[in-house]
Amino acid sequence: MSDVLSTLRAFPFKENERHITVALSGGADSMALFRGLYMLREELSITLSAVHINHLLRGEESDRDEAFVRKQCKMLNVPLTVHRINVEDIAVSEKQSIELAARQARYNVFDKCECDALATAHNADDNLETVLFRLTRATGLNGLCGIPERRDKFIRPLLSCTREEVEAFCSEYKVPYVTDSTNLSDDFTRNRIRHAVVPVLKSLNPSLLKSFATTLTLLNDDSSFIDNIAKEEFGKRLCGEALNITGLEGLHRSVASRVISLYLETLNESGNFAVSGVTKLAFSGSGRLNVSGGRALKAADGFIKPVKNENLPVFVTELEECDASVIKENGKIHNLLLKNAIDCDKIVGKLEIRTRLPGDSITFLHRGVSKALRKWMNEEGIDPALRDILPVVADNNGVVWVYGGGVDKRVCPDSETKRIIKVNCTKKP
User: Fold this and answer.
1) Under 8 Å between Cβ of 183 and 99
2) Which of 36, 255, 262, 296 is in the most buried spot, having the most CB atoms within 10 Å?
3) Architecture, CATH, for domain 314-428
């Protein structure tokens, strides 16, 4: 019996999940999921449809994939919806990486699909690669828990199957599939992890994926336990749009940061506010943290709450990962472009966009000595009304960039730099 089929039979579909839409790229994983569910559709009492997104990134190859998916769905009489999206144009206009723009485009489409559940073909190898990728950027316990088996209407029925098992299923049942040439390249970080890092780990432990699955179970149990404590604490502290922060610093930091995260979700601001920055603000008990859209969080009198920044400009800040060649001319770094470029390999942990916090300092390349942001702003004569809303980019070791000042010497690109993070910041009145 195929592991793919037994995995699909064991998946905990809910009673109301009768119409399943498969995200069908045409690759081995999605075709195995698609054909496996099709083979079991009567046994599982489900109906199937599919959705395909042509990102228009690989020319004739992208069109080949679309034609292949259309043919497979027509052959099995499965309804298919195809979306053609120019991801490259979106990435340029939104100042995002191609990877991020493609992911957001996919999920924007998926969110609008009319179905009981939307199935994606993530497998056990994908889960391992995702956790390793997050480790390179720094992550907390939730990040180490990997890809969830279900989130809202999204389900991942093959998450416990290995890539080897998926390919074995395709071979056994003669399931055709296409190969995305970019998956064979080491141009993207995730591919480098897949091709260079994972094979070494598997050579150290041939049962790596099995051990990893056990680790994820333990981590998820711990995360769930802490989440329950945080939800109970959050329920006691929420007062309308305000959060009682009295004594918050006395809680274990893992609980306190989750309380803050839950609070930001109630404000629909989790994508704008950095949890770590808001936690620091709450612990300090006073001050404000500003974000785009003219909103801020203010801590005072034992509470933290949203406030408006009246008549102040808005700073829209975005981080874009790209090749270091964009800041080089004839192999040499262009000094004017250097001001807003951060060397990816010199980042410690994870980058966050925020405003200044007490104790922040920076060492500019042309000065060579560390200076408190407060003192630098005084020397530069920055309007006091703007000092608490100027955007700052920081990693786990502190500030690496500030608006109007530039990049910290510690993360400044040099002739050996391969990849950079470009800081794109626009000031709007």
Assistant:
1) no
2) 36
3) 3-Layer(bba) Sandwich (3.50)
pLDDT at 270: 56
Indicate if the alpha-carbon torsion angle 85, 88, 93, 95 is positive or negative.
Answer: positive
Q: Are 82 and 66 in contact (CB under 8 A)?
A: yes
pTM of the model: 0.67
Q: How distant, in Å, are the alpha carbons of 67, 102, 128, 142, 154 from that of 52?
A: 10, 13, 25, 30, 16
In angstroms, rounded to a whole number, what is the distance separating the alpha carbons of residues 2 and 158?
12
Mention the CATH class of domain 3-187: alpha beta
What dotted CATH number matches 212-308?
1.20.59.20
How far apart (Å, rounded) are the C-alpha atoms in residues 128 and 304? 38
CA 288 – CA 118 distance, rounded (Å): 40
**Cα–Cα separations (whole angstroms), residue 181 to 60, 186, 187:** 12, 11, 11
- Please report where in the chains the tokens 């808005």 appear, as a residue: 314
